[in-house]
Amino acid sequence: MAKKLAIVLALAFLVLLAGCQQEASPEERLQAYIEQWNNGEFSEMYSSYLNQGTKEAYASEDFVERQQKLYEDLAIENVEVTYTEPGEDAEWDTENPADFPIQVKMDTMAGPVEFEKTMTLLFETQEDTEDWFVEWDPSFIFEQLETGDEVRVSTTDAERGEILDRNEQPIAINGTGYNIGVVPGNFTEESAKEELAEILEISVAAIDEKMGQSWVQEDQFVPISKAAKNDTELLEKVEAIPGATYQETAMREYPYGEALGHLSGYIGPITAEKLEELEDQGYTSTDSIGRRGLEQTLEDRLHGTKGLKILIKKQGDNGEELTIAETPAENGETVVLTIDAELQKSTFDSMEGEAGTSAAVDPETGETLALVSSPAYDPNEYMLGISESRFKELSEDPLNPLFNRFGAAYAPGSTIKPVTAAIGMEAGTLDPAEGLQIDGATWQKDSSWGDYRVTRLHPEAPNPINLNKALVYSDNIYFARQALQMGNEALVSGLQSYGFGEEIPFALELQSSQISNEGALGSEGQLADTSFGQGQMLTNILHLASMYEPFLTDGIMYKPLLFMDEEKSQVWKEGLLSAESAETLRSGMRNVVVDGYAQSANSPSVKIAGKTGTAELKGAIGDEGQENGFFVAYDSESPDFILAMMIESIEDNDGSDYVAGFAAQVFEEYGAE
């Protein structure tokens, strides 16, 4: 019995001894602590590893909650803490501290942070446990951080990238405008407030709200609204109001205004919805963002990256700030377009505010030199925050200046005839020298066509009608008969070889050109209509300009380009027609201007060649009887660019020759340079 009691007592003593004995070496404890640190287990670190003196100096919220918040606010991740292992002969004395060099690495929103420190472990008893415990202070968060210091983030705005034309003329730049405002001490008349509200198209209450801000002083300028640099009429009205004035301020500028409005687009304040989508990319509620056109398309390239800096504001009166991590601001790119802004403006101005669209391309490179939608809006108005009345005015304008026409597609009318001829010559069914006997103003193959007949505008054209005459007189019957001769399959495949039915390989989204709604031709009547650009055929204006390139390049059509840093002369289509056929069409298109019905383009200073076209809109496409006029042309002696132009509703303006006159102005202006 005594022997059993002795065993029990011995076991009890061992249990008691185990409860008070050292559980691990300081290195083992450090390893465990570092593992918790790397995993962000701050609660466990505080409760199980910190020594008593640290816990007395720092409450749980000073250790756990603060580090958790810093990790979240500063986007701290990839924390990697290591230590320098002691030598093999290292011995630990519980009466003395155990010191270990540690290395701390982490990634933050402002860049990487690295530092080295010495971590000390002390041997002590906590409750019933004797062990090694970590001595801690805030410098283990950041090396320079001390008790009472504050950690904050500073941001530096990136400069938005600019958009320039091929000659580095400004299209969208970081320029200047004006803050319109008042000096309260001088702005005391109620009538003046009402007058300012009226010209700014805001309420008197809105002015009072601005003037009632807590920082406002009697002699201090108070911004109320903004104005573009070129809005001289508004600025003059402001100057006439006692106490009202304006001050220059940094502002996005669009120097070419309406002429490039649809292409440049504009920026505006970021919406709450967009901010939620882009917040992780550094956007804030005060940022502006591209809202239309290239400003929107190029947002990723133009926006840039804000600079970030993590700072420690030291305690004390001097308020010294130390930089912990810094990523400098990265300004947005400067994007240079292939667009010639002066050619664009000349083209826009030549259209005289008529509804329509134009495109110009370099036939040797595929570079887009102009891309016009008329009429248009002034992006400066939108960037400043367009008034409700002005937006209503634009929205209700019957010419629809808010609609981007160069992105759409239209029935091309007779401008497609050179393409039809090229397809027929390559198929071997169209001999340009062979004349057809064509009599009368209408024609049908046979009675199976029912009421459908092909109509031509110039029945006086002398027989026989060969290709040259068919181009000069724009003879629909000739091209319909040639289409029937080549057949459905040959015309469809030929049009497809020119890019019909496929996505236009361009930097901006453009409506594709189509042969028909289904991509096929369902009848001989539709085949005939399609040969002269009617039926269900639609073309995009830029694609139409590109389709004339093979007539100047002996069969090559280049990918349309928009950026100067793109490789030039990228072949999109090739082998479209022979050099002989191309020469035949060039000769015919010069004769269209000299001998045909594009006399408004028969300039004495520029030898213009091209093809007119008139497309009657039917059904859902437009009002019955409305006609769109086209002219696609180039300088036959110096074909630096091909210009395709379309003007809507030319039925009361002598047909497509009206458009040829507009286009001729562009060539004459550039031919004179």
Automatic annotation (TrEMBL):
Instruction: Tell me where in this chain the Penicillin-binding protein dimerisation domain is found.
Output: 156-314
Name the UniProt key words of this record, in alphabetical order. Answer: Membrane, Signal
PROSITE patterns under this entry? PROKAR_LIPOPROTEIN
Where in or outside the cell it occurs: the entry states: Membrane
According to the record, the signal peptide region is: 1-24
InterPro entries reported for this sequence: Beta-lactam/transpept, Beta-lactam/transpept-like, MecA_N, NTF2-like_dom_sf, PBP_dimer, PBP_dimer_sf, PCN-bd_Tpept
Which Pfam family, giving just one, matches this sequence? PBP_dimer
Q: What sequence ranges are listed for the domain NTF2-like N-terminal transpeptidase? A: 25-148
Give start and end of each Penicillin-binding protein transpeptidase domain.
357-667
Taxonomic superkingdom: Bacteria
Family affiliation:
Belongs to the transpeptidase family.
Checking PANTHER family in the record gives: PENICILLIN-BINDING PROTEIN 3 (PTHR30627:SF25), PEPTIDOGLYCAN D,D-TRANSPEPTIDASE (PTHR30627)
Q: What is this protein called?
A: Penicillin-binding protein
Which organism does this sequence originate in? Planomicrobium stackebrandtii
